[in-house]
Structure of Hydroxyphenylacetyl-CoA thioesterase PaaI:
Amino acid sequence: MFDADVASNRLGIELITATGGAAVARMRITAEMVNGHRIAHGGFVFLLADTAFALACNSHGPVTVAAGGEITFIRPAHEGDLLLARATERTRYGRSGIYDVTVTREDGEVVAEFRGHSRALRPGANRADGSAPQECRPTGDRG
């Protein structure tokens, strides 16, 4: 699944781990990701959190999509910061789930808190391109 995520891969997001309803992903804030205040644009922080959420809720196997998500920005991130997004499953019920994602800087300082709501597609459903889902695999250490 992650290998086919063009947006996340083009932004340099790396999968660290994804298993059993949890996932960790990371991304370095580049010059292209800062806004007019010279802080990370919130959309990029949201995208990192959303990617970790997607990896966590798809780690169980069934194709799962976002039903909704919200974020609270706690502190700004700056160019050069390495952000880590840690997603944790809170509950799954039927085909739905709730996941929390904490985005921190490398030093552990919290940047944002995200909550995502997932919905698993019906059993046997394929991706929009007709392909079957694949397991999430770490991309390795790319620095």
User: Anything to note?
Assistant: The mean pLDDT is 88. Residues 33 and 40 are 6 Å apart (CA to CA).
